[in-house]
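Subgroup meeting minutes
Present: P.N., E.W., G.H.
Scribe: E.W.

1. P.N. recapped why we're keeping a running log of single-chain structure predictions: easier to compare across weeks, and new members can see raw inputs and outputs side by side.
2. G.H. added today's entry (408 aa).
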Amino acid sequence: MRAYLLAAGEGTRMWPLTTHISKSLLPVAGKPFLQHTLETLKSCNVKKVTILVRWGKREIEHAFGDGEDLGLEIDYLVQKKPLGTAHAIGVAKDKIEGPFLSINGDVLVDKKTIKVILNRFKKDKATVVTGAPVDTPQEFGVIDEEDGKLISIVEKSEHPPSNTANTGTYLFTPDIFDWIEKTGKSPRGEYEITDTLTMMAAEQKVVCETFKGEWIDVGRPWDLLRANKFLMTGMKGKIEGEVQPYATLEGEVSVGKGSRILNGAYIVGPVIIGQDTDIGPNCYIRPSTYVGNGCKVGNAVEVKNCIIMNGSKVPHHNYVGDSVLGQKCNLGSGTKVANLRLDNRNIRVSLKGETIDSGLRKLGVIMGDNVKTGINASIDPGTIIGEGCFIGPGTVASGTISSKSRVY
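Output recorded in log:
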């Protein structure tokens, strides 16, 4: 069995985190996002992997190479133009023989689900489409099925036929390529694999399987926090750096090589600290936090449920909760990030002129790379700050702030 991972997208919905890095390489629980999928495939004995790339091609190929370090055999295909999911899968026509797993690069798939899909294929010898129950089916492509067989996949309807979202994870039989060649363009001018499957299901058996484990579609920046928390659940700590005698580590905590946990630091796992990072003195790091390489979390700082990327510094008298900080950011002394509305309602986020319900009661800031804040700056819940911004001393930042802005 071969796996085919679709990682060619630019990740525009993940702005500003993907300005300088492919979505597939965004760090989650101490590793690039796509690496978690690769390791899951290996654990299911799926060791031959083809990755479809386009934007960020060089960085992805550099990150994973031929797969030898991961115990896999990895090769690459290039989608020259973004012409839709059916086109993306069709690129593999002359590369892949036999049945294959197809997984969207922005979907988190666990071992339990992969095994269920493989077993369903062994039983039915037919294409397998997977779904997951959701609370808001209007926001997803939804599976319409009867007695475990696909009828159609309905895209984002006001009256969806079910609450089972199409997960973007499939096991295709080789004839999928013939059906893709028969697929016309959708109303938005792309070749959609959902149209292919609906057409295919009208003439032959396509079976449906429901996700048995966790399904996380990382479509927005704050979805990284959910993925980060899930992937850190059940982790085992490992200390490779220095922990000073009056620091306290409670639960499962990993500390990378060259990192120092200074006296007075209090860390409650699960927490992952990267390499060459200084933590403390006298700070508090709460569960489900990942701090990358070359970072600093300093004196009188509290961090909770965050992803702090490489080279970023939260050095003194800061609170940062339920947030994602890009690379090489620096928070001035006293900068605070609010993560809860006073009325306790869900945090709403403004993006591209559209107001989006994040579905979260607690959400702080999504901060692009190379952002700096002055002393005593305040950041409102659900704020998006583009890369290269400066937030001035004493300023209250809110809403969406364009890249390279100066806010005073």
